[in-house]
Design brief:
232 residues; mainly alpha; two-stranded antiparallel sheet
Amino acid sequence: MQETRAEPTRSAGRRLGQVWPAGWWFDALLLVGFAGLTAALAAGWLLDLDQAVADWVFDHEWDPAYWVTRTLNFLGSGSPLTLISAGIAIWLGVRRRSAWPFALVVSAFLATGFAILPLKLWTDRAAPRSTLPDAVELFNHLPPGEYSLSYPSGHLVNTIVWYGVLTLLLAPWLGRTARRWIRIAPPAIVFCTTVYLNFHWVTDSVAGLLLGLLLDRLLTRIPWPSLPRPDA
């Protein structure tokens, strides 16, 4: 969800991918924000806010709005985004006789997988629609497979990372404005729809936003097209 600015490395003739804001301070801020939010929730803070938002949504459910938001929420589905990105990567790799598009997709897949699932299993939080007592709490010792693992929102992480991957793959055909909207609009839509549908507590989505931005910046920094080829 960031626009591009140059950020030099110390390596000869090669630059890191371009992120905005430039500098590692923003990455550190995202990491501290995610850790701080997790610690606050574990201590019992912000749980009343989560419950109040979920209760408001339950009290204002409306069938037409449900189906619209349910449809828009598919913008954050990880599997279709992965397959679309993989298809584009294969096409680009064959066309340019380069492995970097495929390496980008594989790296994004591994980054999201290793970041999301362990955190969900560790925090052990139920979704707002769960009937479990005190579902809003972290570390709730959920029965395996019975309740959703809610924290952080994988939909938000996937949306930010995979639309970032798409902008990197399609960069030669996208202008600055198009790249900006592809990075901003889907995460904003998925954030709102995920909360409205009560698929996640609002802090789940905030955590997914912070984690997704961090992973996106790390992936964007790698100068994929200029990486040396295996046979070089």
